[in-house]
């Protein structure tokens, strides 16, 4: 299959809509990361997403909508709290889980009786959804397990020959996937299943909010989890990733220099001194780190790194999302200095 990259225009969006209506998969830009989009109501089309990504069949797809009518058409129940959150955070990087209607096939939901829904904050993608007339299932547009793509070029590196079209909307604004929540206490409470730029602190203004234990821990082997995606390794480049937790620039430099074998890189905040191994900065603030993380992880492969030691971010606010992604990229390998 020939894969084309095209800048968004009315004509390109029409072309993408026609491909999706025919059951094909198209890569789309969002404010979080690029997604692989197909008709969420078409099980055969969604099966092509799983095939293109090499994604486990029990890992459900988030569906993307352009208005609340699409939400009402797809789910059985909408708690009043969900409408309040939608009013404040949609269009935006918040995904909410609801009991699904039968119109959402099991292929899309990974066999679950629930479906995850969000309204992306990207005008071109919202227009495309409207043109298609159906929600679009759209997980990240990368090979399963590799770092999520934040540019069309990242998508092309993973999907060339697998899909017909990539819509190049430029670099993604946020750089990490959406916050995923479910509702507790009869729809009056919130549980964060995957952190993002919409933080638990922000959500707690609207309801009692808790964070699922698997955000920061590897699930037990036979544990039944609310969000099946937490079972799998994610976001990993070919380089071996390890998280370094330390408050000391000196200790970090000493450790990294002891690993100076020509294949080691340090992924740092950018201000550390005395480090002799090659380094890459992924930002001095949590927002910068979220925006840059996946691109930096991909860069370690471009540079031929055998291993990379990533300095641990703050574990509050948006830093929670960065830390969550790093834990899975590193398969939970952490060194405390």
UniProtKB/TrEMBL annotation:
YrdC-like domain: residues covered = 10-198
The UniProt entry's coiled-coil ranges are none
BP GO annotations = regulation of translational fidelity; tRNA processing
**Class of the enzyme per the UniProt entry, highest EC level:** transferase
Q: What are the annotated GO cellular component locations?
A: cytoplasm
Cellular compartments annotated: Cytoplasm
Family under the similarity heading: Belongs to the SUA5 family.
Q: What does this protein do?
A: Required for the formation of a threonylcarbamoyl group on adenosine at position 37 (t(6)A37) in tRNAs that read codons beginning with adenine.
Which Enzyme Commission numbers does its entry carry?
2.7.7.87
Give me the residues that bind L-threonine, please.
32, 64, 138, 178
Enumerate the residues binding ATP.
Answer: 55, 59, 114, 118, 140, 148, 194, 235
Pfam families, from UniProt? Sua5_C (PF03481), Sua5_yciO_yrdC (PF01300)
Statement: the UniProt record of this protein carries the keyword Transcription: no
Please provide, alphabetically and separated by semicolons, the GO molecular function terms listed in this UniProt record. ATP binding; double-stranded RNA binding; L-threonylcarbamoyladenylate synthase; tRNA binding
**Gene3D superfamilies assigned:** DHBP synthase (3.90.870.10), Threonylcarbamoyl-AMP synthase, C-terminal domain (3.40.50.11030)
Q: Which reaction does it catalyse?
A: L-threonine + hydrogencarbonate + ATP = L-threonylcarbamoyladenylate + diphosphate + H2O
The name this protein carries in UniProt is Threonylcarbamoyl-AMP synthase
State the UniProt keywords alphabetically. ATP-binding, Cytoplasm, Nucleotide-binding, Nucleotidyltransferase, Transferase, tRNA processing
């Amino acid at each position: 299959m020939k894969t084309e990259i095209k800048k968004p225009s009315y004509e390109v969006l029409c072309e993408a809509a026609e491909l999706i209506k025919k059951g094909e998969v198209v890569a789309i830009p969002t404010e979080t990361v690029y997604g692989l989009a197909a008709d969420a109501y078409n099980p055969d089309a969604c099966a092509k997403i799983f095939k293109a990504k090499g994604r486990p069949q029990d890992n459900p797809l988030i569906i993307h909508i352009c208005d609340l009518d699409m939400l009402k058409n797809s789910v059985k129940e909408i708690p009043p709290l969900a409408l309040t959150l939608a009013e404040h955070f949609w269009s935006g990087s918040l995904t909410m889980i609801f009991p699904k209607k039968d119109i959402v096939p099991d292929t899309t939901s990974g066999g679950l009786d629930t479906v995850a829904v969000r309204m992306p904050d990207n005008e071109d993608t919202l227009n495309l959804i409207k043109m298609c007339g159906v929600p679009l299932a759209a997980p990240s547009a990368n090979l399963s397990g590799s770092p999520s793509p934040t540019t069309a070029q990242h998508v092309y590196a993973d999907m060339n020959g697998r899909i017909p079209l990539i819509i190049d909307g430029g670099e993604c604004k946020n750089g990490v996937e959406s916050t995923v929540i479910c509702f507790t206490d009869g729809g009056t409470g919130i549980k964060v299943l995957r952190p993002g730029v919409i933080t638990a602190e922000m959500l707690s203004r609207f309801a009692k909010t808790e964070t699922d234990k698997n955000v920061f821990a590897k699930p037990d082997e036979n544990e039944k989890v609310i969000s099946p995606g937490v079972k799998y390794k994610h976001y990993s480049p070919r380089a071996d990733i390890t998280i370094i937790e330390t408050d000391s620039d000196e200790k970090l430099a000493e450790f990294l220099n002891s690993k100076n074998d020509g294949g080691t890189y340090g992924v740092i905040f950018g201000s550390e001194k005395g480090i002799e191994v090659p380094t890459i900065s992924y930002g001095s603030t949590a927002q910068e780190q979220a925006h840059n993380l996946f691109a930096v992880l991909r860069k370690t492969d471009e540079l031929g790194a055998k291993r990379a030691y990533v300095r641990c971010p703050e574990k509050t606010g948006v830093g929670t999302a960065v830390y969550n992604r790093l834990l899975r990229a590193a398969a939970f390998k952490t060194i405390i200095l």
